[in-house]
Specification:
The strands form 2 sheets. The chain has a 5-stranded antiparallel beta sheet, covered by helices on one side. The protein has a 4-stranded antiparallel beta sheet with strand order 6-4-3-7. It is globular, with a radius of gyration of 18 Å. It is an alpha+beta fold. A hairpin with a 4-residue loop joins strand 3 and strand 4. Helix 2 crosses helix 3. It is built from 4 helices and 9 strands.
């Protein structure tokens, strides 16, 4: 009997961290937490998710090679964060972002992953499928969701950061936390301004 076939696949995510905007997004999470208490994404590191998938760990190095090859000519790009919004269907509060560059990168990542090595692709941000965003709060109860909308949506959140690399994360079966596998850099550019375009307003 081939016992290797019984090994459950690990979970993986490919993300871009929000760089210089991270502290401001964490402030939003803390502001909500101070009002409603803790929630499922209260302590997650702010990021844009490009893909979530399952795969046997033995294929990890090959997938990394495919990603590096696919993305070796992809340039860094700016992402604009422009206001907060909500998805009623999933009780999620998120930050709206510029779309085109993120969707293009997501499409290239999908092409690298779409092969027999990957057991299942759970989420893929790509052109004509998905919306680039940064999650602030998800999995809220109906009551807390209404509180969160009233509290956060009026905030005029506007910032900007540069995606310089993507990060591959892994979570083994039954594990709670994610661990970093590697970072894959994008081609460097010289941005006009690497800092956020505005400061987070003081909360009432």
């Amino acid at each position: 009997m081939n016992y290797s076939s019984l090994i459950l696949p690990s979970e993986y995510m490919i993300v871009a961290n929000t760089e210089c905007c991270e502290d401001s997004i964490i402030q939003l999470k803390q502001y909500l937490k101070n009002t409603i208490g803790t929630f499922p994404s209260a302590y997650s590191v702010p990021h844009i998710t490009f893909s979530a998938f399952s795969m046997q760990e033995k294929h990890q190095d090959l997938i990394i090679q495919r990603l590096r090859h696919k993305l070796k000519q992809v340039s860094s790009f700016k992402v604009r964060l422009d206001g907060l919004s909500a998805w009623e269907s999933s009780s999620t509060i998120f930050i709206q972002t510029s779309q085109e560059e993120s969707l293009n990168l997501g499409s290239m990542i999908f092409q690298a992953l779409y092969n027999r090595l990957v057991t299942e692709i759970h989420h893929s941000l790509k052109t004509k499928s998905g919306t680039a965003h940064v999650t602030v709060a998800r999995g809220l109860s109906p009551e807390n969701f209404e509180i969160a909308k009233a509290l956060l949506l009026p905030i005029p959140f506007k910032k900007e950061f540069t995606v310089k690399q993507i990060t591959l994360l892994k979570r083994n079966v039954n594990a709670i936390s994610w661990t970093e596998v590697c970072k894959i850099p994008l081609l460097a550019i010289i941005p006009n301004n690497q800092n956020g375009s505005s400061q987070l307003p003081l909360f009432p």
